[in-house]
Design a protein that fits this description.
mainly alpha; transmembrane helix; membrane; 0% strand; 151 residues; Acyltransferase 3 domain-containing protein
Length: 151
């Protein structure tokens, strides 16, 4: 039995503490610089995501064409495999790729190809966006431009 899910939760807690702590500390002294914050968070996640999507597309393409003798990619295995939620070949299209690229995996569509752990990057992205918004309370100083502060 693996500890993959627990490891991701541990990572979220650690990352949230480090990033969230920085946001809390920054908000005490000055308004959050949303442009820099989003650039920092985007570059951190997209450096991993783009590489994972391209490498996954290559591996899944090769695997589905040359190594599908046991039906792993087409979900036609003689015995059920617990970790396969459906045919991976159905998720190797542009719509799944774009959903994952825009951090909408598991929100709009399942993750691209066989890379189910991509859900964790989408969760992290949305946590990065929501936490400072909740922390700022949409105050005039911290609200992103275009959002009206709550009165």
């Amino acid at each position: 039995m693996g500890f993959g899910h627990e490891a991701v939760v541990f990572f979220f807690v650690t990352s949230g503490f480090l990033v969230g702590g920085g946001v809390c500390e920054c908000s005490r002294t000055r308004p959050l610089d949303w442009r820099r914050y989003l650039a920092d968070r985007s570059s951190r996640l997209y450096a991993v995501l783009v590489f994972a999507l391209l490498l996954g597309a290559m591996c899944d393409s090769i695997g589905s064409h040359y190594f599908n003798a046991f039906g792993f990619y087409s979900n036609q295995t003689p015995h059920p495999v617990a970790v396969i939620g459906g045919p991976f070949v159905e998720r190797l299209d542009l719509s799944h790729f774009l959903a994952s690229l825009f951090m909408l995996q598991e929100i709009a569509l399942p993750s691209f190809g066989s890379n189910d752990p991509l859900w964790s990057l989408a969760h992290e992205w949305w946590y990065y966006l929501l936490f400072p918004l909740l922390l700022s309370g949409f105050s005039k100083e911290n609200a992103p431009s275009g959002l009206l502060p709550l009165q």
